[in-house]
Amino acid sequence: MSGQPTTLSIDIGGSGLKASVLDTEGNMLVGRQRTPTTYPMPPGKLVAELERLAAKLPAFDRVSAGFPGMVRAGAVLTAPHFVTTDGPGTGVDAALLQEWTGFDLTSALAHALGKPTKVVNDADLQGAAVVAGQGLELVITLGTGFGSGLFYQGRLCPHLELAHHPLAKDKTYNQRLGEAARKRIGDKKWNRRVRDAIGVLHTLFNYDHLYIGGGNASKVTFTLPAGASIVDNSAGILGGIKLWEREEL
User: Are 55 and 47 in contact (CB under 8 A)?
Assistant: First the structure.
């Protein structure tokens, strides 16, 4: 690795795979490259897709990746999008569930790309790019599903899969706020749900600041309460540099 390492930063999403190469300041050397996420998506196919995406970008010294599921010590514990037969909202495939559970994505990507690699939850990665390091900061992502990351005084707390926790009417955050729900009920009703969810989250965490990111953050139209702000979706990429700077990530 050179004295000024460059970082391939990957944002793995339920609808798209995005990547760019960052310099040591976190600036993108080129614009984001994107390819659609297709289904079914077993682990080997995902690694191959990311390898092809990386080949379109400048040379890099290390790799950061944000994954939409529970990741611990670089291994995937849950992959809610990728265990389905035809994408979010479709049935779970037993063989895919077995393949993904415990899959060492970090080692697989390191082997395929030939560089040191770190993999964390995607909302945790996005949060690393935006938190100010003051008090309790909650990051949520609104996209194909719902993601969350919690930070205290700038340090990442143990990951909680809020996405699969009941929010209202026996439906989870994913089911109430995910892309499938937004398309089904329309933006106006979806915005009311997001607003109500923010109230629940404030009661649950009593956070000092809430950051709202993800591809659907731009569709939030109501006035946010004090202590909440929208962050650019590029944070899913820019967090890649922070992953190497923060020891706890």
Answer: no
